[in-house]
Amino acid sequence: MNTVFEVANVRCGGCANTITASLKEAGCKEICVDLSCEPRKVTVDITDEAQLAQVKAILRSLGYPLAGEEAGAIDNATLKLKSFVSCAVGKFTTDK
User: Sign of the C-alpha dihedral, residues 20, 49, 41, 81?
Assistant: First the structure.
């Protein structure tokens, strides 16, 4: 079932590349990152509750928490820093 996540800190194609590659590596098959809206939307074909939790955890670990997720100032700063690194990695990674 396709599930849409509204995600914070996604700015560009580099971010989208990192998200797509990480979710594919975790076994997700259909992934779409929509950069045309704010907050950005990540659509993933989710098979069960365990995969749903896994996708949320992966997004957060990359610095892309769900939009509206409550976090403290230090946590927000940490997530933004992680997203900058993830973005840079995505800009230099190509899918072959």
Answer: negative
How many Cα atoms are found within 13 Å in the side-chain-facing hemisphere of 12?
A: 11
- Are 15 and 87 in contact, with CB atoms under 8 Å apart? yes
92: three-class secondary structure by DSSP: helix
pLDDT of residue 17: 93
The alpha carbon of residue 41 and the mean position of all alpha carbons in its chain are separated, in whole angstroms, by 9
The tokens for 25 are 């590596």
**pLDDT, tens digit, 9 for 90 and up, residues 13-63:** 999 999 999 999 999 989 999 999 999 999 999 999 999 999 999 999 999
Tokens found for residue 6: 């509204």
SS3 90: helix
Q: How many residues belong to the chain?
A: 96
The amino acid sitting at 29 is K
pTM for the whole thing?
Answer: 0.85
Report which of 55, 53, 51, 19 is spatially closest to residue 35, judged by C-alpha positions.
Answer: 19
